[in-house]
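Q: For a teaching handout, I want to show students what a protein-ligand complex looks like in token form. Below are the inputs, and the small molecule is 2-phosphoglycolic acid. Please produce the holo structure.
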Amino acid sequence: MEIIIQPDVEAASRLAARFVARLIRDKSRAVLGFATGQTPLPLYEELCRMHREEKLDFDRITSFNLDEYVGLDPAHPGSYRTYMWTHLFGRINIDPGRVHIPDGLAPDIPLYCEKYEDEIRAAGGIDLQVLGIGTDGHIGFNEPSSSLVSRTRIKTLTVETRRDNARLFGGEKKVPHHVITMGLGTIMECRTCLLLAFGARKAEAVAQTVEGPVSAMVPASILQLHGRTIVIIDEEASSRLRRSEYYRYVYEHKPDWQKV
Ligand code: PGA
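A: Here is the structure, written as tokens, with 2-phosphoglycolic acid included.
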């Protein structure tokens, strides 16, 4: 893993946006994996700015989202479809025909999940997957005890995650119990993973992910076995890392050709 500690959320998000933009400029038909939640909002804001001011062109990219709530009207303010179109897709020149967000209303969920996997494969696989992390160590909605080789499927959210996500539902009780999420095995096939985590409340999950044992109890720790994972965090999220000085040292001494 490459661990990059930035002074604050803004600097971290600008750096993450440079990674995404570089890929799009290098490969106009890039396949991007997107995440939702509070964490990537400043990244999406910066990508919108780059589209507006620097002509970053999303016209030929394909996108796949990590997850969606089951049984939720796609027009609900808490749906990830609403989130993506509000914060990113509605503000850039992406082709709606190349956008993929799991359909939480699919009548046959197992069949639908297989189809989602097929679509990822047919697109050539995901070049870069943006990831947030839950306070319980989840990525996508792969909650603790998720199989480390899982594929896209239905999952039941933990009480902690439903509480964390209650904001847009007008209370914890209204947060759906079930979601469709890419599996850990699906995420592990992405060519590059870009994990973002900000704030002190993520510090323990980050420490366990980066420095703890690989364990289904901390699903994000599977990324230790991924060949190219970049973890971009702010100072607060780095506060429980034992080797943070080393990670800073590595970043400061990167050869020029490796810098973004
Ligand atoms: P957050 O969620 O970005 O809203 O903290 C992250 C996650 O649950 O993956």
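A: Two things your students might notice: The beta strands are 2-6, 31-34, 62-65, 67-69, 99-100, 128-131, 153-156, 178-181, 192-197, 229-234. The first strand starts at residue 2 and ends at 6.
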